[in-house]
Amino acid sequence: MEQKFVALFTEFGVLVVVANVLLDQLGLPIPAIPTLVLAGAIATTGSITTLELFFGAIAACVIADSVWYLAGRRYGSRVMKLLCRISISPDSCVSDTQMRFERWGAGALIMAKFVPGLGIIAPPLAGATRMHWRRFLSYSALGSVLWVGAGLGAGLLLRPQIVQLLPHLRQVGTTAVALFAAMLVLYVAFKWIQRYRFFAALRSARISVTELYELIASGAAPLIVDVRSATAHQLDPRIIPGALRITLADVRRHLHGLPRERDIVLYCTCPNEASAAQVAQVLIQHGFTRVRPLQGGLDAWLAAGYEADARAPVEPIAVVSVADARTG
Asked: Which domain holds residue 183?
């Protein structure tokens, strides 16, 4: 059994591994690490097969990264909105990975494949923020080398244990595949239920752009907060007039500067207002009761034809003074 399996792998394994890695890096839910580990265990150390696996998988990574880089460079924030829309984890929306990208800079491309969520977001972000293509390819290649090397290296280290399991693959292979498929379906179902409950709980608290406009026109003076990350604001610098800027990462540091007696309207540009919803949850947990995410966010405000400013919103450091001045 082992000899037949190894022979089959030698003939078709490289193509299977490369295809698996390519689809995984393009965003399909087909994990490539188990395949790399198995490939590393079966391949003979130092053989041409090992080299083909290594460089083939790296090429697949760079190709997939380049596709997303070009998409981000051409379509900008629309790519990130698409990724956020299809995400099954609303609590780890694009804004979270944007903040990591901002902290790590170009180095995020090196570690991206090791961080859930960041791997698929970092390449289009690099394109959208106009990172030079030579720099992008260098960091993407280095990150790919580390990630592929880790997978194949783990297989080489575990080779004796994995080889011992190969004779049993025929007996447990079908059962294992069925079990894995069932677990994958259950995981996706759980995440979608979690996603539905997350947004259903906040749907009734949302405010439409028309309601916000009328609220402002009535003189109620709601406090409007732009919760977008620095990268999202760079991609689209327009803001709702008078908005303050407090990102999800900073909100807890500025709780004392926010008025509890006024309506606080939060907006972002992520589909389903995921980032605004997260900030709303933080505020509600700290006793704020008049918190409302803006339905449709900045995109809905602009689509309605309402006025927008191209200047930067008030930074968090000025939140206290501005809030006091408005309530004074």
From this structure: 2-201
